[in-house]
Amino acid sequence: MADNHKRTLTFKIFRHDPDNPDSVPHYDTFKLDDRPFFSIYLAMEEIQQKHDPSLYYDICCRSNVCGSCAVNVNGQPCLACKSQTKDLPDTITIEPLRYFDHIKDVAVDKGRWFRDMIMRLEGWIHTSKPFNEKLENLQKADDQLPVYEAERCIECGICIEACAIAHLNPNYLGSAGMNRAYRFLIDTRDERSLDEFAEQLFTGDGVFGCEAMLGCRNFCPKEIPLPYHFGILRRRILKRVLTGK
Amino acid sequence: MRILKYDVVVIGAGLAGERAAVEAHRNGCSVAILSLVQPRQSHSNAAQGGVQCSLDNMGEHSAGDDWKLHFDDTIRGSDWGADQDVVERVTSAAPRLIRELEYWGCPFNRTEEGKIAQRNFGGTSVWRAAFAADFTGHALLYAIDQEVMRHEIKIFWRVQVISLILNGAKVIGCIALDLRSGDLVAFHAKSTIIASGGTGKLFSESTNAINCRGDGQSLAYNTGRIPLGNMEAIQFHPTGMYPVWILLTEGCRGDGGVLRNAQHHEFMWDYAAKMGNLASRDVVSRAMMSEIRAGRGVEGPFGPHVWLDLTHLGAEKIKTRLRDVHDIARDFAGIDVITEMAPVKPVQHYTMGGIRTDIDCRVRGVEGLYASGECACWDMHGFNRLGGNSLLETIAAGFYSGTTASTEAGGRSASETDQKAIQDEYNIQVERIDTLIATDPKETSFALHDEMALLMTEQVGIFRTGELLKDAVNRLLDIRERSNNLGLSCKSCGRSLELEMALRIHGMIDLALIISEGALARKESRGAHYREDFPNRDDEHWLKRTLAHKRNGEYLPRLEYEDVVITHLPPGDRGYGEKPPPAAK
User: Fold this and answer.
1) Partner residue facing B244 (CB), from A37, A48, A189
2) Among B38, B95, B328, whose Cβ lies nearest the Cβ of A63?
3) Is A77 strand, coil or helix?
4) Distances (CA, A) of A85 to A38, B329, B394
5) Prediction pTM value
6) Are A137 and A166 members of one domain?
7) What is the pLDDT of residues B422-449, one digit of tens each?
8) With an 8 Å Cβ cutoff, are B142 and A151 in contact?
């Protein structure tokens, strides 16, 4: 590891400003010395602040909790903050996520997609119970844990980027969408039945779109068991469709 | 000029901002939220360990808990710097406000009975922190944002608010830069709420996100009418993970983790005989730095540190209740906390001070402006905030600021002179940006920032002295002077990180000056503000809040002082069994 830090890294970064008619997509190359705890985020920060102020990228929490900094590194989607150079070869190519609306260089807008997805699934608790300020809803720990597991999604967009079906079908809800639907379906506080998700989920844009290539599982930075959540949804829906229960 | 009209405009889409927006919407107002980042990506996400509220759900561990006990803990934590009427209001509303978040879907951990579970935290007399593993801020933010979505509250993201619009002493909205298109947009509002978060990035070593740059505090200060309260009260969190300065929650110690020095001695009991590892953050941070100064720290390539030991907690507890801590240590430092100790050092974490408001979250000095959350000085935390009280403050201040702002918006109508005020402010901002773009840089905002942030960490940190602070003020004045030579090499208004930083660097240096000047003037030690040359709390002279006012044409603020509101608990011993740290050699 010590020797590794003496190497020089070559960063090839995708550059394009779609709002500027003179801009031509290309790659710029920057050389930086490797160092302990160096990451893709820190490299982009150094390049932008010291070498090329026009570089545009997204970063916020820098600790794998906000999901803003997702990019493709050597062709694989990941969070820039979490991707340390010690795990990468000497030449590192950084590109934006291809699926989402491109803003400039390696920054994209994922917000619109996630807002639309949440609206389609009505991603909030549906209950007829009034709020009781004296006592919370009672929920078993065993019922809370799987909800929390799904709620850990940070909406980074990596599972969508890593999904071939999503790239082919723009209406596909993808793993992020399925995970969100699952989160409400299993929540004992949400009164919606499976049928109420039918329009969104019982279709090729929903659970039947997945062809189990598992890119979502391979790249999720929070290691959420997305295919498992998907599987539970699919099993429940098949049971509903085949047996009527 | 594009003008958008709303009853209430909220600056910031973190917990405080979104909670305020939900409340204003519930009261029938048209509401817009303006955010630097996409919704759900605000720094509230990064709060890990829990939110304080006296639910008393933990049997013997929380027996007898009520708002009064929570109140006492908070005041002792604040070292009597907090306003007691505000703390009473918040601690008594806490159970209702947190249960509401549960009702909205926040997946809190549960007790055997299925109630919201609570864990132990620093500086508290019982187990009081409700939590969702160690991702509580994220869980709360998603729960509130679900309400924002349900009510289809308008949210603009990738926008940076660069000035408030005043008509006389009335705030009538703000000017925002659309960071994507580069267009300026005027928001015309009956009420404006600032909920823009803290100032962590004034320090080179901080747990804060990149966008915690004190934007809201600068907006308010720049009006020249609004005082900032207690800016010298900066919290340093004991367990910033070395050397990347990512937070490892206080819940680590709440759940049984301990701090150890190079000799693996559990040193906290030497400094806080009664509370040990769970003394308040200011006490623990000072103790850690005292160990390091005494040569008992662990030497490393990025300077000395101490250890946070979780190895006795067992894999199951860590993988369920401290799961993100486990992942963060693994991913960012290559440490497996189940079997290895994690290297930690106290680093900047929280800004207790901020935009001074009254108990209903009205900003002092103007009409039509409100502030809530970390950017405000309400003042619930005084000179040291207890862990888990920040999340509570965001929810409570969000609720109260949203309530006040929406109620008072109903009584306001646009004035005929508003249009001119908006146009004037718009023109000022257009010219400001045009000038920056037309000027070639002699100084860059990033280099100035790095210089300032390093200075703040080295000289305005945990141990302060008059000499270091005086020198810091002088050097900051020089940096501030040089910031007038700023220009831009990137000549675009949209999609330019260089412009975004250039628009806020002056404000950041001003805030650094206010912090340093306030710390220099406060000749006592209280909570997180520790003066080695004045090591004792001095209630006779300093049971006061600092108010920093902008002076026309000068970089240094005018400092004023006001009495702290004391209703129930007169100043006394904090109850941690704290021994003063040994003097520096």
Assistant:
1) A37
2) B328
3) strand
4) 6, 16, 37
5) 0.97
6) yes
7) 999 999 999 999 999 999 999 999 999 9
8) yes
